[in-house]
Write the structure tokens for this entry.
Amino acid sequence: MLLRFKSIQRYRIALFFSIFYCSILAQVQNGYSSVDKIALQLAEADSHKTDDIARYINSHFNTPDDKARAIFCWITHNIAYDVENMYKVNLYQNTNDIVERTLNSRKGICMSYTELFNAIAAKTGLKSFAVQGYTKQNNKVDILPHAWNAVQIGLEWSLIDATWGAGYIQNGKFVRHIENSNFKPNPRQFINTHIPFDPLWQMLDYTVTNQDFYDGQTGSANKKSFSYKDSLSEYQTLPESKQLSDAARRVEANGVKNAMIYEHLQHLHQQLEY
């Protein structure tokens, strides 16, 4: 997906001081400064394979929360958004190829950040899934799909978007600016800009339809009740064929509002046939 765009109308000096101040403030307030410091001390020689990265994280952190933060921190500080290939979004590539290419080139698009997070997380004992969907910026729905992570941290599920967390595009160039708001955001706020194709991954106790998302009606009023925690627990016990068929049913029921949703639905049916 396209990375977030920043308006070029802002005064350069004001932007510089705003970014500098917010960056310092975020580091003070996010509560992970000690974790971030250790995560960023990973040696260059040990940062080209997920096994080595995971080994470093496991040797320095014990809790799932710290491990998830360390992965987010290292990726957002070391992987640049690949502006030249921003339109070459393919959510269904071979994940091993994506991870290897991302670590070698040190750049990628949304699936690169997502699959790299997944690969490292799996080797640190974290349960992480790639969530596919689409986004909205400045009240306008994007034309390309996007991907982010859903991670089980302890008994709770959290959402993490390392792509948006790494920075933004301005004047056709990637600007690295760590956005801590994309690490474990409140799902009630996250749904305003990110909606998964499968409503299972909304992490909400009510269902937001695609039409709701387009209309900006993402609040809980008059929404259908949905026990996502129970549903996620059940989902993990199902055979793959049942996971796919249930996902296809949920995606279709939530409204095939655009070509991105339709393509994802077709992919689910193709996987079922295979």
